[in-house]
């Protein structure tokens, strides 16, 4: 009895990798083994990038809040501590958005916390 290799599944697997590698330079786009390695590394970078994105956005929000709060005579850490003691449940994303787009309401929030 001849060996069954399931060519349909093998071809689909290779085709999926080569389709994902479309647009890469040189052998990376059309040689399966090279494309497979490059795609694997790319997916690793993609996973790490999603984690770094969260970290970088949080740092950006903190910088924006700190800049807005220093105009009111506080530091970032003092402001966050005052928010926590008063029980204000706004996260850094919302606070940074308020500081950038609605400075009057942010000043009112800082004044209410002081």
Rg over alpha carbons = 26 Å
> Would you identify the CATH architecture?
Orthogonal Bundle
Order of helices and strands: HHHHH
CATH domain class name: Mainly Alpha
Number of extended strands: 0
CATH fold-level name: c-terminal domain of poly(a) binding protein
CATH superfamily: Ribosomal protein L20, C-terminal domain
Counted by DSSP, the helix tally is: 5
The domain tally reads: 1
Strand content: under 5%
Tell me roughly what share of residues is in helical segments: over 70%
Could you tell me the mean pLDDT?
94
Question: Major beta sheet, specifics?
Answer: none
- Based on CA inertia axes, which overall geometry fits? rod-shaped
From the N-terminal CA to the C-terminal CA, the straight-line distance is 84 Å
Summary, kept brief:
The protein is an all-alpha fold and 114 residues long. 75% of the residues lie in helices and 0% in strands.
Supply the key terms.
mainly alpha; 75% helix; c-terminal domain of poly(a) binding protein; 114 residues
Question: Care to describe what's here?
Answer:
It is a single chain. The protein has 114 residues and is mainly alpha-helical. It has one domain (7-113): c-terminal domain of poly(a) binding protein, CATH 1.10.1900.20. Helices cover 75% and strands 0% of the residues. It contains five helices and no strands. Helix 1 (7-20) packs across helix 2 and helix 2 crosses helix 4 (92-101). The radius of gyration is 26 Å and the shape is rod-shaped.
């Amino acid at each position: 009895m001849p060996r069954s290799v399931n060519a349909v599944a093998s071809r689909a697997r290779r085709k999926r990798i080569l389709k994902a590698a479309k647009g890469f330079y040189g052998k990376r786009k059309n040689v399966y083994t090279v494309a497979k390695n490059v795609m694997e590394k790319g997916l690793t970078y993609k996973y790490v990038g999603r984690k770094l994105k969260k970290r970088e956005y949080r740092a950006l929000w903190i910088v924006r809040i700190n800049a807005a709060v220093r105009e009111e005579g506080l530091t970032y850490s003092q402001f966050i501590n005052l928010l926590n003691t008063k029980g204000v449940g706004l996260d850094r994303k919302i606070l940074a958005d308020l500081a950038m787009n609605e400075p009057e309401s942010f000043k009112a929030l800082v004044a209410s916390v002081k």
